[in-house]
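Both lines are given unchanged directly below:

***
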Amino acid sequence: MLYIIIPVFNRWHYTRECLESLRRQTSQDFRTVVVDDGSTDETAAALARDYPEVEVVTGDGNLFWTAGVNAGIRRALALGADRVMTLNNDVVAAPDFVAQMLLAADQHPNAVLGALEFDANTGETIYGGERLDFRTNTRYDLLEELPANKRTGLHPVTYLPGRGLLIPKAVTDKIGLFDEKRLPHYLADFDYTSVARRAGFPVYCNYDAKLSTYPEESGQTLTRKQRSLKGYFQHLFSIRGGGNMVNFTHFALKNCPKPYLPYFLLNGYARRLVGYFLH
C-alpha cells in the first residue's frame, strides 16, 4: 500500500486544495498521512471535521520539513506501507497522478520516482528534473533538452525534490530516512534521492505523472522578494534559507565524488554569495 506523507504548518487553504485533489484521484489505492507541525490556524479542526480518512501525526512546531516527513514515514511504515510518497501541501495533483505513479512503480519496483510540475497560476511546465555534473557543478535542465513530443515516460535524473516523491520500502530499508540532523529543511530531498541513486536505486522523473505547484510560495522566492541585508543573512544561514551554506556543505561532502569536491565547494559557495542579488 502507498502512503502519501504531507507535512504542513498553517496555510490550510493550500492543504485543503491538495487533499481535495487526492480525493479526485482515479486510483484510490493509497492512504494519506498529514503531519501537522503545530499549526495555529484551522488546520487541526478542519482535518478532524472534514477529512476523517486522513491519518494525522502531530508535531510541536519544531519539526521543519525533514523531521516532519520522517515522522510521517515512520507512521506509514508502522501501518504497513510498502511505498511512501512525500508531497508538499501547496501542490495540486492531476486526477491520474497516483495512477501514473503506481503504474511506473509496478514496472520499476526499486525506482525512486518524481513528477512533472506545472505552474498552478499559468499552466506553464516548470520542472522536469535535472542532471548534475559534479565535475563542473553544471546543471542540465531536462525541459530544455527534451522536445515537447518527448515529454513522456521516465527520464533518469541526478536527484529529485520532495514534491510528489515516491520511495519504495526497499530504499528506506537500505539507506534509512531523510537526514534531519544535518539537513533539517532545504536540500534534504535532493540529498536523499542522490544517496539512493548512489546506493543502486534508479531515480526517474515520471513525465506522465503531473502536479501543479505554486512557485511563489517557496521559501527561496519569499526571501528574495524584498532584498535586504537581513534577507541576505537568512538566505545564507537560516534553516529556511535556500542558499544555506552549511546545508550545501553537507550535501557536497555526502554526494560529490572526492576528486571534484574542492571545485564543487568553491563554485557552490561563490554562487550562493552572489546569487541572492542576481535572481
Summary: The radius of gyration is 18 Å. The first helix runs from residue 12 to 23.
